[in-house]
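User: Predict the complex with magnesium ion.
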Amino acid sequence: MSANGLVLQTENLQKELKAGEVTVQALRGVSLSVMRGEFLGVIGPSGSGKSTLLGLIGGLDNPTTGKVWIDGIDITNLNERALTRVRNEKIGFIFQFFNLIPTLTALENVALPIQFARQRKFDPTKRAKELLDLLGLGDRLHHRPTQLSGGQQQRVAIARSLANAPALLLCDEPTGSLDTSSSETVMKALRDVQRSMNTTVIIVTHNMEIASQVDRLVTLVDGQLVADVDPHSSAQMAAVKLFKEKRATGEMSVIHPK
Ligand code: ADP
Ligand code: MG
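Assistant: Here is the predicted structure with magnesium ion placed in the model:
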């Protein structure tokens, strides 16, 4: 970790994307600093640049201008080999779809990135078991993905992303394909990971329910950061919570226009 505890820093990130003849300004100068162990959410409407931002942070793509530091390393200046190394050692990725290898068991899926690590820090099988235990899947080690529920598959994916003890876990709509109850188990799993391993977790979502559970919430609109709040104390989030409580108790009803 860098000396001052910053796991991630971005400076004036801009990204232009071309769709045929049209150029889209997907990001218009995003500067963000995130400390070790933070549990951060990124919310914003569809098309606001959330996935683009996460891709740049994770070194999956290069910014048009601007910089990204991971653990003090400027990843916008690395060659492909060095970048791959930072990605493998410092960053875990979670996506909406779990991308598990269907022919492998949960245990084998999680052990795989440890077997392929350049410097092997852990015993693959032992580490995979520990991680699956942590995620509440100790009794599902030998199940294949098709024998697991969506929420269980996503927890296997989380275990796999943690295989080489990354400092930063990047999650793009991690509950996007899950029902409410599975979403809850996945959010709880991410919280457990952050608390027990002090991993920095960044969750991109367009779901207010998910967003209300993070410790720090940044809002992206049209490629720009427009808010950075603690949702536990923000007036707007408090209003959303109050509305939900009142709706749940029947004090407030939702009026559906005809
Ligand atoms: P979000 O994840 O918030 O829905 P994205 O980061 O996916 O938003 O997209 C931001 C903007 O960039 C949108 O206008 C989208 O249409 C555009 N965009 C995303 N990916 C591409 C691409 N590969 N080529 C061209 N435009 C893209
Ligand atoms: Mg997206």
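The two ends are 56 Å apart (CA to CA).
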